[in-house]
């Protein structure tokens, strides 16, 4: 299950949205981290966004990609 999170940078800039971690997405799609990283190398796969050292994916974009591709 993914959660809507408002991420705040150290400079106070806020990025609202549905940003998910690798762990959350692997659990959602029932795949291993290895499979996740293999998928992430596919052409057209949504790029991760870095918030400092944290890496997140737009859950809606990932779902749209996987639905279109039917992995």
Automatic annotation (TrEMBL):
> Which superkingdom heads the taxonomic lineage of this protein's source?
Bacteria
Q: One Pfam family this chain carries? A: HTH_17
Keyword annotations for this protein? Plasmid
Checking InterPro entries in the record gives: DNA-bd_dom_put_sf (IPR009061), HTH_17 (IPR041657)
Q: What is this protein called?
A: AlpA family transcriptional regulator
